[in-house]
Amino acid sequence: MNLAEIALIQFAAGGLELDCAKLPPPSTSDGWHHVQATLVSRLLDGTFPVHHRGVRLRNARIVTSGREPLCLDRLRSDVGLRLKDCLLDCAIWASDARLPWLEVNGCELPELLADRISVAGSVYLRGLRTTTAGSMGTVRLLGADIGHNLELDGSRLHNLGVGPGLHAEGLRVGRAFRFRHGNVSTRCDTGAIQLVNARVEGDLWLDGTVVRNVRGPALNAEGLRVEGSLMLSSGFEARAMSDELATVHLMSASIGARLDLGEGRATTGLSYGRSDDDRTRTHAVLENTGGKHLTLDLKCARVNELRLPDETVCTSDQDWCGVDDKVVLVGLKYNSLSQESMRPNWPHWLSTHAEPFDSEPFQHLATIMRDAGKAGRARKVLIALEEERFRRRYRPSWGTRCWHVIKRVFTGHGYKPGRALAGLLAVVGVAVVFTLIARANGWISRPALLVEGLGGDGDGIACSTGDAIRLAADLSIPLINTSGRLRCDFEHYGLAQQIGTVAGIVLQILGWAFATLFVAGFSGAVRKI
What we know:
This protein is an alpha/beta fold. Helix 5 packs antiparallel against helix 6 and helix 8 packs antiparallel against helix 11. The relative contact order is 0.05.
């Protein structure tokens, strides 16, 4: 054994951390103090006595003979392992291991494979630097069970092969999962970060992390369950080239609190090697250069609060824009929207950027906006739904086009029946003005027929203003009879008769039309026609 290995045995027995930088300079050509990987595993399996504080080693180079890993497979240990600022020539294998805690901070190694590992406390992999060309992933935690926190803040995971950067399918974390300000680059068909069917009892943070995958999605988290918030914010950047899956694939995910793709929280606590002053509070950037340009898939997901700013999808609110990005929102259920998500862009997003088109996202959004006191915006969303439905119809007839325009202009597709009521009132107003003008020009007069109790005389007697208004009401308002024509009517000869006949027909047609549209719009029947 060399000096560093002897010192490690002694320090482990005394519960102290060995910092090899404080030892006398080594005689090795690379300037590192070397520690055999087998010694570390023997300390953990009880071959040497170890204090309950665990094995703690810093600024050392862990070496093996050949390409053997630091093997902790199926290890049952009562003490934990802490490696800090170490260089590992070998991978760490810890599948089916049982440890009280594990820390590998600021280290450089090829890969860490720990399927089904069970850790009662926390796992800290902060500042990790891994580079491999394997198909299993650089950090692999399939089915792992971690009692407290899992942290990879500031880690750099690079896979030059066809495997993922972080493969944690079926992972369970008892508290928070933090992977902030990291970097992942892969060429994996199934995802650079894979959290399929993972479960996190607290918050899941990916703030400021940059993920790139040139052959598949950036984040594949189908079936993910997070009891707290999922933070894809504060400079989170995901770039992918995937034809089938979205850049961020969250199908059937369940988020107990907030799904945040905005600027994130003002204070998030300390991150490895960073402070809150170093944070970039910007929205998430999602990009997919694949065939369908799917950037976000929230199909059948469940979210308590959704924070989806304009910049994440598209800032335009026009019918046309030059952005090809698509999102999947069919079946998405959320209970509320953040204030910055209450923007007028939603109808444009759902019409232009939602893939595939479906009425359910429009209707759910309208319900949420109505519950939030935004009834006007809710109506705009539902009107946009009817417009998009008509736009997608195949070669509608001219009659269908005309009926669509009438519904849109006069009833707002049934969501603004007040327009038809206003039209009816306008017809009544026109009728009143017309009858008053007719009275002034002598086109209307009291009829010759005597009416009991009125003391009627005959033709040529001018009508009163009230009689003229009652005549206007009879002409323009359907199903209402004020007996106005018994008191006042158009002359029965010449130009007055012609004007009265034509005006009466036109006003009655318009009155009936607007009244019918109002009733059909108010009852919603217009949307079924």
